[in-house]
Design brief:
This protein has 8 helices and 7 strands. Strands 1-7-6-2-5-3-4 form a 7-stranded mixed β-sheet, sandwiched between helices. It is globular.
Length: 250
């Protein structure tokens, strides 16, 4: 009975947020067309709507820990769920995401992502994708703010392991900006591949910054260790009792 009720409320939650995304997208469109600030305001407003409905309909609350970055920096984040995108977007002042090129063709999301200055990259073309990322960043098309990249390249379910890709280091090295590793347990409550939402407290934790200047091996080893161990700790804190990947600090 409880599970059936959760399914009903989860479906209601998904539908309510899809409808609100469409409505906000239409209402804010004239402002967004004139200024990226309109797109930013629309997306920020939408995250507050999601936060309210997540609490009211499916019992998800969220918490942001650590020092929220407000300077120009690279945010390298664990990606388990659309929820961690929403939490990060609400938390930082001017987020810009490295995203899959296919998302540009998604109604509403694609248009607003473009106006925000997100950087689309093609899957399966790592070298070309990295060059495109750097070209977009250096050209100034990506406005100052917090550039967010997911180092594993996709959502990763709790308990699964995927290696970190080198694109994070290339951006860190070329931009010469601080890097903020970011952990989460959001996938426990808003899982990949299902509409079922689970009650609990989702956390995004901004970990201590990595200052510019580290070499690739040191940077990648430290980054993966910090993000994976931080995310594992958040999942254990939330009651996850499954097997978690173990990462050795190099």
């Amino acid at each position: 009975m409880v599970l059936a009720w959760r399914w009903i409320m989860s479906i209601l939650f998904v539908v309510a947020n899809a409808v609100m995304m469409l409505l906000m997208g239409i209402v804010f469109l004239p402002w967004a067309a004139l200024s990226p600030n309109g797109a930013l305001a629309a997306c920020k407003a939408y995250t507050y709507w999601v936060r309210f409905t997540a609490w009211a309909l499916v019992g998800i609350t969220w918490e942001v820990r650590g020092e929220v970055p407000d300077e120009e920096c690279l945010v390298v984040a664990k990606h388990q769920s659309f929820l961690d995108i929403i939490i990060i977007f609400q938390a930082v002042p001017r987020p810009r995401f490295i995203m899959k090129r296919e998302l540009l063709w998604t109604p509403i999301i694609g248009l607003y992502a473009w106006r925000l200055g997100c950087v689309p990259v093609a899957r399966g073309k790592r070298g070309a994708a990295i060059k495109r990322m750097m070209a977009d960043v250096k050209s100034g098309r990506v406005a100052p703010g917090q550039l967010v990249i997911y180092p594993q390249g996709t959502r990763v379910k709790p308990g699964e392991y995927r290696p970190f890709k080198v694109g994070s280091y290339v951006l860190y090295d070329q931009l010469a900006q601080p890097c903020v590793p970011t952990a989460t347990n959001a996938g426990l409550f808003w899982p990949k591949g299902t509409m079922l939402r689970k009650p609990g407290r989702a956390v995004v934790d901004f970990l201590p910054r990595i200052e510019p200047g580290q070499g690739q091996n040191d940077f990648m080893g430290y980054l993966e260790y910090e993000i994976e161990t931080g995310s594992n700790a958040l999942m254990r804190e939330a009651g996850y009792d499954g097997e978690l990947p173990k990462v050795e600090q190099s």
